[in-house]
Recover the amino acids of this structure.
């Protein structure tokens, strides 16, 4: 495959997703492959005028060939808004519109029209208010849409400064859970599935022959020999020992406050954090705006930006498309790996 097609969902229409797609088209220089946005052409044209961007929004039939990137042109697979949009003002009437963008991208990847999907940010609350009470985020929605039992959220950024060089990848054992529910969600079955997917997709999509994975403990000081919690002694340590016996290169559990240091990270291909705010603040501090969110375990390639809808900045032009560029670059690299079908 020489030119993968990347399908970009434009996300929450009142947020900065449309702005990011338009800025990318105005700047040109797509990292690799071809790009088609998915969204409402009228919304995109209106937002381009508001931003003062000379971008032609070019609606395409879904079966039409997507041309190579051209500066100032944004090819779009059209999806109609459900209600008019004011930048920065959420409207639950457009909740179904946002989900349709995702459905269109998944379908395109599943039937081979696109080789990867990249998602601009959505707003969970407005989708719930639209009637989708169980909605918890992109990751879980795409898991269900693709009919798989388990996926893994991983963010990646290139390191620099005090943390040294190389790539920091942080995967999550649990994702969008209240903190009080995290401990009950840590189980041998769950850790086996997450670490199995992480190991397999680091091999499959990133060409790492034998991934070295460092695992965080759940509790402060990784439990302090049971004095600060027994999850390490009862679940995490025995599970890692069994996985090492089965050939996985998994280390830990390490205290999170010392694992994220240059010495501990040296030679590590990925870190598994036990919960969302254990690992992601470190990664975002190291590379906010220059990181990609990657969903592992899907039968398709999916990446995303590392930030939210930034409603207060929508339509202002005061945003940076750096994370979107990283997400597109990673998606293209993963697509070009041409992994075998699951």
């Amino acid at each position: 495959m020489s030119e993968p097609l990347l399908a970009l969902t434009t996300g929450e229409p009142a947020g900065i997703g449309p702005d990011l797609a338009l800025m990318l088209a105005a700047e040109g220089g797509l990292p690799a492959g071809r790009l088609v946005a998915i969204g409402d052409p009228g919304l995109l044209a209106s937002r381009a005028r508001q931003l003062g961007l000379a971008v032609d929004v070019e609606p395409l039939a879904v079966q039409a060939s997507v041309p190579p990137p051209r500066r100032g042109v944004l090819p779009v697979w059209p999806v109609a808004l459900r209600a008019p949009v004011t930048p920065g003002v959420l409207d639950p009437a457009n909740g179904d519109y946002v989900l349709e963008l995702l459905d269109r991208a998944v379908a395109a990847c599943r039937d081979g029209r696109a080789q990867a999907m990249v998602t601009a940010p959505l707003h969970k609350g407005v989708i719930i208010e639209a009637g989708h009470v169980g909605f918890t985020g992109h990751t879980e929605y795409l898991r269900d849409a693709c009919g798989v039992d388990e996926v893994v959220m991983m963010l990646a950024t290139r390191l620099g400064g005090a943390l040294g060089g190389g790539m920091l990848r942080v995967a999550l054992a649990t994702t969008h859970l209240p903190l009080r529910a995290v401990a009950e969600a840590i189980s041998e079955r769950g850790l086996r599935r997450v670490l199995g997917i992480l190991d397999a997709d680091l091999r499959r999509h990133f060409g790492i022959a034998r991934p070295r994975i460092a695992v965080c403990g759940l509790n402060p000081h990784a439990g302090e020999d049971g004095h600060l919690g027994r999850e390490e002694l009862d679940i995490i340590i025995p599970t890692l020992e069994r996985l090492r016996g089965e050939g996985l290169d998994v280390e830990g559990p390490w205290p999170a406050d010392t694992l994220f240091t240059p010495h501990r990270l040296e030679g590590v291909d990925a870190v598994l954090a036990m919960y969302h705010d254990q690992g992601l603040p470190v990664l975002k501090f190291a590379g906010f705006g220059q990181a990609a969110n990657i969903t592992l375990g899907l039968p398709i390639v999916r990446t995303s930006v590392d930030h939210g809808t930034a409603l207060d900045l929508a339509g202002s032009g005061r945003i940076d498309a750096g994370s979107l560029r990283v997400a597109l670059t990673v998606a293209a690299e993963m697509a070009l790996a041409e992994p075998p079908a699951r």
